[in-house]
């Protein structure tokens, strides 16, 4: 696969064309990831128009805002997403008890 040629081919393509190519190329192995941030709805809507059951990978770190989780659930229902979620091995509160707030340390 020549990545330079693919990049050139899709440099000015509509995003749905790129998604269609990926689905045609990789079939049911095609997946997209989403953080379910504010801009996520556009890509998810486009992707599900091309392949309604496209896998949507979501990593829930346990440190996400409640608004993010609510938005994820709303889009999951609205777009009937085929969501593949990865969760931490231990709950957020247990992690903090064990390791503290690592983001506040050097």
Descriptive report:
There is one protein chain. With 106 residues, the chain is α/β, with parallel strands linked by helices. It has helices at 3-10, 15-26, 40-50, 66-79, 92-99; strands at residues 31-33, 55-59, 82-86. Strands 1-2-3 form a three-stranded parallel β-sheet, with no helix packed on it. The longest helix is centred in the C-terminal third of the chain and has 14 residues, at 66-79. It is elongated, with a radius of gyration of 17 Å. The termini are far apart.
* Gyration radius, rounded: 17 Å
Strand content: 5-15%
Q: Can you give the mean pLDDT?
A: 92
Poorly predicted segments: none
Helix content: 40-55%
Number of DSSP helical runs: 5
Q: What structural category characterises the helix and strand content? A: alpha/beta
**Biggest sheet, open or closed, and with what strands and sense?**
3 strands, parallel
- As laid out across the biggest beta sheet, the strand order is 1-2-3
Record field, number of beta strands = 3
Alpha-carbon distance between the termini?
42 Å
Q: What best-fitting shape do the alpha-carbon axes yield?
A: elongated
SSE ordering: HHEHEHEH
């Amino acid at each position: 696969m020549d990545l330079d040629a693919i990049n050139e081919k899709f440099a000015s393509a509509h995003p749905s064309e790129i998604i269609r190519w990926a689905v045609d190329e990789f079939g049911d192995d095609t997946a997209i990831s989403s953080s379910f941030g504010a801009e996520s709805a556009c890509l998810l809507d486009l992707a599900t128009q091309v392949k309604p059951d496209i896998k949507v990978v979501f990593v829930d770190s346990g440190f996400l805002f409640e608004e993010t989780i609510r938005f994820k659930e709303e889009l999951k229902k609205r777009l009937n997403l085929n969501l593949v979620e990865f969760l931490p091995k231990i709950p957020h509160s247990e992690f903090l008890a064990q390791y503290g707030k690592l983001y506040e340390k050097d």
